[in-house]
Structures are given as structure tokens and as C-alpha cells.
Amino acid sequence: MKKSKLFIFGIAMAAVLLISCSKGRSKLVNSWKITAVEAKMPLSDSLKSVILSDGTLTFTNDGHVTGFLTSEITNGTYALTKGGKSLVIKDEVGTPYPCESTITDDELILDSKEMKITLKKI
Length: 122
Prior knowledge:
The protein is an alpha+beta fold. The termini are far apart. It has an eight-stranded antiparallel β-barrel. 18% of the residues are buried. The chain has helices spanning 2-28, 45-54, and strands at 30-39, 56-59, 64-68, 72-81, 86-90, 96-103, 107-111, 115-121. The protein contains two helices and eight strands; from the N terminus they run αβαβββββββ. The radius of gyration is 17 Å and the shape is globular. It has one domain (2-121): Lipocalin (Beta Barrel). Helices cover 30% and strands 44% of the residues. It comes from Flavobacterium johnsoniae (Cytophaga johnsonae). This is Lipocalin-like domain-containing protein.
């Protein structure tokens, strides 16, 4: 009896987590353009200018991401956790870029230890 209650509780928790993450994911799936960069570590003016002019990210429903942050991402992946509050982008070689995320209908803010980036939906 205890095992069945524990199993049902586990299924219910998984469902709640899946629903909360899918809400954030549905807002994230789109193309975004970088509109602001706030450096937390030294960042050259030329790199900041390139990030602002070329910076875009496109997130797909199947967990892939393409675009340009500080370098080109042609076949990356992403994971959105903590109800949409934590986003980890991995480039083609699997290097993780973790950040806190704030997602609204038309704005995405990615806050990492290196910089805070604001993106607008394209």
C-alpha cells in the first residue's frame, strides 16, 4: 500500500514539473534578438558591438538552439528547469552556459556570471 501511494505521488510530482517547464518552454520557443548587454566581467567594446549587431537565438520545441551569443551556435541544445527560471545552453561541443532566465511574452533576460543579456522576440 505504501509503495503504491509513493508511486502515485511520484507520478503527480513529475506531471507538475513537466507542466511548469512546458509553460516556460512554450514562451521560449521562438527567435530572439539581443537588444542589451550588461557586462559583469571585462568585455571589449568591439565584442559588445558584435554581440549587439549579430546576437540572435532561436529555440525550438525539440530542445535545440541556434544563433550567436559570443560565438556562433549552429547545433546547440538547451534545458529549461526550475519553472523557467534556469536555462542552460550547450554549444555543439557540449560546453554549458548556465544562466538565470526571465521569460515574458516578448522579452527574455539571461543573467550569467559573465553578463546579463536582454533579448526581444523577433
